[in-house]
Amino acid sequence: MNAPAAATLPPLLQAALRPLPLAPLDPLLGLVLRAVLRRHPAIFDRLGGHAQKSFGLRPTDLPFALVLTPCPEAPRIAAVRSLPRHGLDARISGPLRALVALAEGEMDGDALFFSRTLTVEGDMEAVLALRNAMDGEGLDLVRDVATALGPLSPLAERLGIRGRRLLDRLSRPRGKPAWS
Amino acid sequence: MELICPAGTPAAFRQAVDAGAHAVYCGYRGETNARNFPGLNFSHAEMREAIAYAHARGARVLVAINTFPRAGALDLWHRAVDEAVAAGADALILADIAVLDYAARTHPAQRLHVSVQAAAANPEAVRFYVEAFGVRRVVLPRVLSVAEIAAITRAVAPCETEVFVFGGLCVMAEGRCSLSSYATGQSPNMNGVCSPAGHVAYRQDGATLVSRLGDFTINKFAEGEPAGYPTLCKGRFATPRMDGYIFEDPVSLDAAELLPALGKAGVTGLKIEGRQRGRAYVESVVRAFRAALDALEAGRPIVSPGLLSLTEGQSTTQGAYRKTWR
C-alpha cells in the first residue's frame, strides 16, 4: 500500500454505496473473520480476556460500520449503518485504507493516531491488545481468506489482490482529515 | 557502533533482524519489563524462538528485565533472569540492584547491561555497577548532552555506553519519575507502564481531541493538530505564568544528525525506542538508521531518515543532546 495514510475513498463512491443493503455483507465478513482466526489462533493468546469485548470499527469513508467480537468460542462480525451508542467496549475510526493497513501491520497505529488519521475511544487496554495482537501476527487478509477457500484459493487470491489495488487507486488525500 | 532495535512481538522482532538490526532488545510478558502493555511482549517459548532466529542471522538479543521488584516479590524477576540466561540471551538489561546482584552471583558468565531505568548519569554511578556487579555496558539516560556523554564514556572505559537515538523521549530522570504514579498509581518503574492504558481516555469534543489520564485532562488537540501520548510530562498545563507545555512538547527524539558526534564520543550502542510500536515503525526506523550507520562507517554523508510521519506530535528534537535553556 503506497497511498498516504489519510487517503480516503471518493465521496461519489460513498454516495453510490449508501443505498445498498448490508445483509449480504455479513456472510462475507464472517468468512473473512473465521479465515483470519483459523490461520492466526495466537491472536487470542495476545488478546486474553479482551477477546470477549465488542469493538466498533468505523471506516469514515464508507456508509456503514462493523461490530466485532473476536470471542474464540463464537467470533462475530456484523455490518451496521452506524455504531450503537451503548454496548461497545471500544471504537476505532479512520479511512478504510488506513484500517486495513493497521490490521495488516503495514502502518503503525501510534503514527496513525499522532497524525489524527485514526480516532480511538473507550477501553484503551482492549484497543491496544487488539492492535498488538493483529500486528504481532502479520495478517494478510487476502491470503488468509484465499487459503480458507481450498480449490478456489488461486482465483480468490487473484481477485483479492485486484481488489486491494483498486482500493489503493481509489484512496486519495482529500483536503481535511477523514476523522470526525 | 551497534544498532539496537526494539521488538514488542515476535513479528516485530523478525522485522528488526531482517531490516538490519545488529541487536534486538525485548522483554517477557508481565511486570518485569518497562513496556508492560496489553497484547505485547514475549512468552518464554517465543523468546527462545526469537533468540534462535537472531543468532542464525548474526544478530544479538538483549533481554530487558528492567523494572524494580516489589519488596518480597523478587521471584518473578529471578525466574525471568534464569529463563533469559537459559534461552541464550546475549545480555540482560537490568535496573534494580537486587536483580543485578542475583544475576551476577547466579550467572557470573552472563553479560549484564545497566538499563536506562537505573538513571546512571555520572562516572561514579557507572563505576559502582561495574565494580559491584561486573556490568559491561550502561544505557545512559536521555538528560545528557553529547559532551557529557563523551566525558562519561571516557571516564568509565572499558565499560561501554549506549544512548537512545530515535523514538519516544522520556525527559525525566528515568526510573525516578513519579508522574504516572501520581495520576494512576502505576508507573514504568514498578509496573512497567507509563500512563497505563486502563487509565487513559480519549474523547472527541467536536473536532477537538481530548486526552485524559486518570482524573486529569492531559491535552486538547485542535482540529488537524498532531497528537501525542497521554503522558503528564508532555501535557499542557495552566499555570499562573503561562499556559502550555512546561516540561516538553509532544515530540520524538531524532539524533540521526548526531551520529558522527556520538561516534567520536566513543559510544558503543545506538538504541531505537519503541517496543510498543508496530512492525511498520520497526521496519522503517531500523532500515533508515542502519543505512545512516553504514553511510557513516563508509565515510559517506548521512541522509536524513525522513521518519517524521512516525513521530509523536509529528515533530522531532535532539533533546538534551543539544541542550538549550528555556
Automatic annotation (TrEMBL), chain A:
It holds the Pfam family SCP2. SUPFAM superfamilies: SCP-like. It comes from Neoroseomonas soli. This is Sterol-binding protein. Residues 45-135 form the SCP2 domain. It comes from the Bacteria. InterPro entries: SCP2_sterol-bd_dom, SCP2_sterol-bd_dom_sf.
UniProtKB/TrEMBL annotation, chain B:
The gene is ubiU. Belongs to the peptidase U32 family. UbiU subfamily. Its cofactor is [4Fe-4S] cluster. This is Ubiquinone biosynthesis protein UbiU. The lineage of its organism: Bacteria, Pseudomonadati, Pseudomonadota, Alphaproteobacteria, Acetobacterales. One of its GO terms (molecular function) is metal ion binding. [4Fe-4S] cluster binds at residues 170, 177, 194, 233. It comes from the Bacteria. Required for O(2)-independent ubiquinone (coenzyme Q) biosynthesis. Together with UbiV, is essential for the C6-hydroxylation reaction in the oxygen-independent ubiquinone biosynthesis pathway. Pfam families: Peptidase_U32. HAMAP family: UbiU. Forms a heterodimer with UbiV.
